[in-house]
Design brief:
Blueprint: H1 39-49, E1 62-71, E2 90-99, E3 114-122, E4 125-132, H2 145-152, H3 163-172, H4 177-184, E5 198-199, E6 204-207, E7 213-222, H5 231-240, H6 244-254, E8 260-268, H7 270-275, E9 295-304, H8 309-314, E10 327-328, H9 333-349, H10 410-418, H11 427-436, H12 439-453, H13 461-475, H14 477-487
Antiparallel strand pairs: 1-2, 1-9, 2-3, 3-4, 5-7, 6-7, 6-10, 7-8, 8-9
Helix pairs in contact: 2-3, 3-13, 4-11, 12-14, 13-14
The structure holds NADPH dihydro-nicotinamide-adenine-dinucleotide phosphate.
NADPH dihydro-nicotinamide-adenine-dinucleotide phosphate binds at residues 135, 182, 185, 187, 197, 221, 226, 286-290, 428, 431-432, 435-437.
């Protein structure tokens, strides 16, 4: 009989000693002081003091669910990943949804991108697709990330969120405009996590059996349909039900209404990449669907809320560095930065052996010479060798897994750096406003901008507003003029 299934379970200390009392502390006589020898009391209080690990610096508030992913279309001409080797293949997945800027207890309906992280437990090891509900991001260079995030957190003096900080940064970084447009559209406040799309956001690569590489973008299209909240609805819910999105997901899954997303990919050949009018590895840009149509690859369903939130969601560690053979990286600068930053964050938050925790452990055996470190819980590879090369363990690097070299000679890399289109931060946000948004969405977006920009204060207020209006103007005249009107500003270019 296991510990969990025993009928008459005896209370024990964590070291297993049955204990006789769980409410009254051991005292000198009925009213006397507490005795140091009440070990159970110390253990209980001391462990309680240590219940919290550092919350994630970003994406602290989140919820997760298990499910499965099934391959529905043959994409073997692009990838040799075993998962995609046959239509019908499937694997278990874990998904974590989150907001970005708020603390662990913040409200789910904040205007903020939503994290959309998927861990595929494949027979090739874990593949993590760690994206957002938006296809682009605010910055394209990881060097800017800490600065950007500071503006989304709290003012160093007042400890309050500050519209001035946010708009100061965005207005000084016009590359943010595309993401800012999406954020202030209705999609900036999704109606829970089930009714939004997910995007791998970066450009990735796929490599097939012939060792040929294509560049790829990943899209998870919600099968529930898109549902969003208006700004005022989202504001109201922050007070009424701060855990709105978590509740919606848990309740849907608990009653058997399992949400599903279709995984689609966009494919760009290396030749097309050279001719693409923007840098294909710039995360502030999308690849237009007309030129790079969506290709279906599979379906994911979420059908199980983990039995223990802390074990499987708080301790879940997703990292863009976790790829599998046949799915690779790209020169996207922000992706390159995240390859370093995510595992580093997990080592800090969870410990050097974070990949041994059950939720993070791959379903395949691992063979390497890493040893020791805090919380080594998988036997630490027993008596086997902890050095390489050695004459005993037979662990050898298999050259067949080598990816073809990326053709990033000076012609490509330098021309991207020098290409004037790299500073075109306006065409795509303009297309979004003019071509994609309905009149109602346009009006809501304008209202949301006006409401947020009214929060800018202080001696630099005029400078910040004018700078931002200029960016709007370059994207779309109507947008800029209507926002200026809403702010009561006479705007001249
Ligand atoms: P299409 O006209 O082919 O498709 C528009 C896309 O925009 C759809 O994917 C739609 O998602 C999505 N969308 C609609 N409203 C919003 C919104 N408020 N915020 C974010 N996405 C939205 O687009 P193109 O490929 O020609 O690109 C035009 C613009 O659409 C881009 O500049 C970009 O801003 C936006 N977009 C493009 C994407 C891409 O990968 N090409 C992806 C997402 C947005 P759905 O189909 O689920 O309704």
């Amino acid at each position: 009989m296991t510990y969990m299934t025993m009928k008459n379970k005896k209370l024990t200390t964590a070291s297993g000693r049955p204990y006789f009392e769980n409410e009254d502390s051991m005292t000198v006589g009925p009213r006397g002081p507490i005795l140091l020898q009440d070990y159970y009391l110390h253990e209980k209080l001391a462990h309680f003091n240590r219940e919290r690990i550092p919350e994630r610096v970003v994406h602290a508030k989140g919820t997760g669910a298990y499910g499965n992913f099934k391959v529905t279309r043959d994409i073997t001409k692009y990838t040799r990943a075993k998962l995609f080797s046959k239509v019908g293949n499937s694997c278990r997945i874990l998904v974590r949804f989150s907001t970005v800027g708020g603390e662990k207890g913040s409200a789910d309906t904040e205007r903020d991108p939503r994290g959309f992280a998927v861990k595929f437990y494949t027979e090739d090891g874990n593949w993590d697709l760690v994206g957002n509900n938006t296809p682009v991001f605010f910055i394209k260079d990881p060097k800017k990330f800490p600065d950007f995030i500071h503006t989304q957190k709290r003012d160093p003096k007042t400890n309050l969120k500050s519209a001035t900080m946010m708009w100061d940064f965005w207005s000084l970084n016009p590359e943010s405009l595309h993401q800012v447009m999406i954020l202030f559209s209705d999609r900036g406040t999704p109606d829970g996590y089930r009714f939004m799309n997910g995007y791998g956001s970066h450009s990735f690569s796929m490599i097939n059996k012939k060792d040929q590489r294509v560049w790829v973008k990943f899209h998870f299209k919600t099968r529930q349909g898109i549902k969003t909240l208006t700004g005022p609805q989202a504001e109201e819910l922050k007070g009424k039900d701060p855990d709105y999105a978590q509740r919606d997901l848990v309740e849907a899954i608990e009653k058997g209404d399992f949400p599903k997303w279709t995984l689609k990919i966009q494919v760009m050949t290396e030749e097309q990449a050279k001719k693409f009018k923007w840098n294909p590895f710039d995360i502030t840009k999308v690849w237009p669907h007309k030129e790079f149509p969506l290709i279906e690859a599979g379906v994911m369903e979420l059908n199980e809320i983990p039995a223990n939130y802390y074990a499987d969601v708080e301790q879940a560690a997703f990292a863009p560095a976790h790829t599998v053979d046949g799915i690779g990286l790209s020169p996207d600068k922000l992706l390159q930065g995240r390859i370093l930053a995510y595992p580093d964050a997990h080592r800090y938050r969870l410990g050097a052996n974070y990949q041994q925790l059950p939720v993070n452990r791959p379903i395949v055996p691992v063979h390497h010479h890493q040893r020791d470190g805090s919380m080594s819980v998988d036997g630490n590879s027993g008596a086997s060798q902890n050095y390489y090369p050695n004459s005993f363990d037979g662990i050898e690097a298999d050259k067949s897994y080598k990816e073809p070299s990326m053709k990033l000679d000076s012609n490509i890399a330098d021309s991207f750096n020098r290409n004037e289109k790299d500073n075109d931060h306006f065409t795509q946000p303009g297309m979004l406003f003019r071509k994609v948004m309905t009149d109602k969405e346009k009006q809501n977006t304008i209202n949301n901008f006006v409401c947020a920009l009214k929060g800018v204060n202080g001696s630099k207020k005029k400078e910040i507003l004018m700078r931002q209006l200029n960016h709007f103007y370059k994207a779309d005249k109507e947008l800029a003029l209507k926002i200026a009107k809403g702010l009561g500003i006479k705007f001249k270019v």
